[in-house]
């Protein structure tokens, strides 16, 4: 039991250190340098160590965290101090806990022990992720309510309405994926995308559920409360929205929760629609190439290639969300709600019905 617990803890720690925190830090750097390229400006380059700015990395990953952590933590007068302190924790922790069921590889064999490369093996992993994502809304609502500020309260109300609205479309989009793969286990969904169609085409989820991918990606960007769906913050209207009255490390926790949610959306898109850790034509024993040729690969190298593939896909979709932020203008609030209720929700319902009919017809034909 002690060894099993140590393995689970090790997998969770590896997931956090190798993927979540690294991609989040890279995303923060993307946020500055990619946006600078899009807007034709230099970007962060002021802070340096011994004259080395490292293309803004020192500014982003050293100077800014030190500034946030050393800044005075101010609590406004006449606020509920307990709720004010709990809000950033409730916003960040559920997003981090959602990674417990994200598979980052297939299996790793160490001696006689086969280790499943997923922090926690859960049969209802997809429901668990949705539950954790739903809990984040409490941090947004409590931050707005507990701040004793009308603009913060307005941001909290906007955030709760937006997140609840888009969670419905997100959940319905995933039903089509569940119908196709007949499981809620994210590891099994990733493994199911390893077989080949017609002997050469990787059967990734995007081929079966392209409409669900568009709906999920859109709803995921809305869930992370970023442009073009950043109405809960909306700097030009609400200063910083629901976390206007936060400073120092608490403000940093809210910013971290946004980027953790971006990485979470990227991880789910990767696992559900783009094969997860799958490398085209790579199986546990090596590459089975089109045409019948085979290239043997050591099991450890197979695992390394899977981890690399998962990381690169994660980085790409994180980069894509940042490009979307700095490319599209902000929606008006009525446009945002209309897109969720009158656009994505009916489309998701149609996708579920169409997927169920196709699966039923295929089963009867078989």
Notes on the structure:
With 366 residues, this protein is mainly α. It has one domain (77-365). It is built from 12 helices and 7 strands. The protein has helices at 2-38, 57-70, 81-97, 125-146, 150-181, 186-192, 205-208, 210-223, 235-238, 248-273, 299-325, 333-365, and strands at residues 107-110, 113-116, 196-197, 201-202, 282-283, 286-288, 294-296. A 3-stranded antiparallel sheet has the order 5-6-7, with no helix packed on it. Strands 1-2 form a two-stranded antiparallel sheet. Strand 3 and strand 4 form a beta hairpin. Helix 3 packs parallel to helix 10, helix 4 (125-146) runs antiparallel to helix 5 (150-181) and helix 5 runs antiparallel to helix 8. The longest helix is centred in the N-terminal third of the chain and has 37 residues, at 2-38. The chain is globular. It starts with a helix and ends with a helix. The mean pLDDT is 86.
From the structure above, extract its key features.
366 residues; mainly alpha; globular
Which helices and strands, and how do they pair?
Elements: H1 2-38, H2 57-70, H3 81-97, E1 107-110, E2 113-116, H4 125-146, H5 150-181, H6 186-192, E3 196-197, E4 201-202, H7 205-208, H8 210-223, H9 235-238, H10 248-273, E5 282-283, E6 286-288, E7 294-296, H11 299-325, H12 333-365
Antiparallel strand pairs: 1-2, 3-4, 5-6, 6-7
Helix pairs in contact: 1-10, 1-11, 2-10, 3-4, 3-10, 4-5, 5-8, 5-12, 8-10, 8-12, 10-11
